Amino acid sequence: MKKKKFLSRELDAKSKETLNELLAIRNWTFHNSQSMLVAECEVAKKSIPPELVDFKKDVTIDFSRLALSAIKIAYEYLFLILGEEYLNDEVAMLFSRELKKNAYSNKKSIKVSNELARFVTFSIYGSGIEIDLAEIREYFTKTSMDILHTIFMINQDGCLYCVLNLCMLDVLFFVIKVTEHAENYKKQLPCTFVFRDGTVESF
């Protein structure tokens, strides 16, 4: 990370161990979830008969496991943006403990604890933010940019929130409270886009 200029100095042994343990759950959290969601979405689109394209039906889906993936993404994103000082934040330390605990759990028993769940807003509908997000997404869909995921930060009531939209789908909007002390972080907060071809850009 120092070579890539993410860090100004080498981390101590304990910090390195913590980050390496978190990397161990990357594949079965975000990347596996992302791959399955994208693949299933494409298969679903191709399998719908033309006469049923406009057919709509309400369904109930349990996305509780994805909430843990959203927390993992937010935790790593904040570390990337704010640097190692974020690791000492009370919320960051909670995220670290819970992610490590689930990393060593049976995958079938993985779940978001009540302590952790209060930091995740899902679904966002009724929170007020969905109106702004809908306008942002509508703008991007009118451009030629083939965006797969978006992630950005908002500062509200002294807290920082990470807003994550996976696969640009309504049902995969997550808002994660990443700190209750926004005043401790003065860095500019970018908006990051992950494109379908795998490239990543921040503005």
Condensed summary:
Helices cover 40% and strands 17% of the residues. It is α+β, with helices and mostly antiparallel strands and 203 residues long. The model has no long low-confidence stretch (mean pLDDT 75).
Report on the structure:
The protein is an alpha+beta fold and 203 residues long. The chain contains six helices and six strands. It has helices at 13-23, 27-47, 64-82, 90-103, 114-117, 129-141; strands at residues 120-121, 147-156, 159-165, 173-179, 191-195, 200-202. A hairpin with a 4-residue loop joins β5 and β6 (200-202). α3 packs across α4. The longest helix is centred in the N-terminal third of the chain and has 21 residues, at 27-47. It starts with 12 loop residues before the first helix and ends with a strand. The relative contact order is 0.14. The mean pLDDT is 75.
Produce the secondary structure layout.
Elements: H1 13-23, H2 27-47, H3 64-82, H4 90-103, H5 114-117, E1 120-121, H6 129-141, E2 147-156, E3 159-165, E4 173-179, E5 191-195, E6 200-202
Antiparallel strand pairs: 1-4, 2-3, 2-5, 3-4, 5-6
Helix pairs in contact: 3-4
Query: Radius of gyration in whole Å, from Cα?
Result: 18 Å
State the distance separating the first and last CA atoms: 21 Å
User: What's the overall geometry?
Assistant: globular
The helix/strand series, from N terminus to C terminus, equals: HHHHHEHEEEEE
The share of residues in helices is 40-55%
> Could you give the count of β-strands?
6
The proportion of strand residues reads: 15-25%
Q: Report the uncertain regions.
A: none
Most strands sheet: 6 strands, antiparallel
| Mean residue pLDDT | 75
Strand order of the largest sheet: 1-4-3-2-5-6
* Total DSSP helices: 6
Q: Give the helix/strand class.
A: alpha+beta
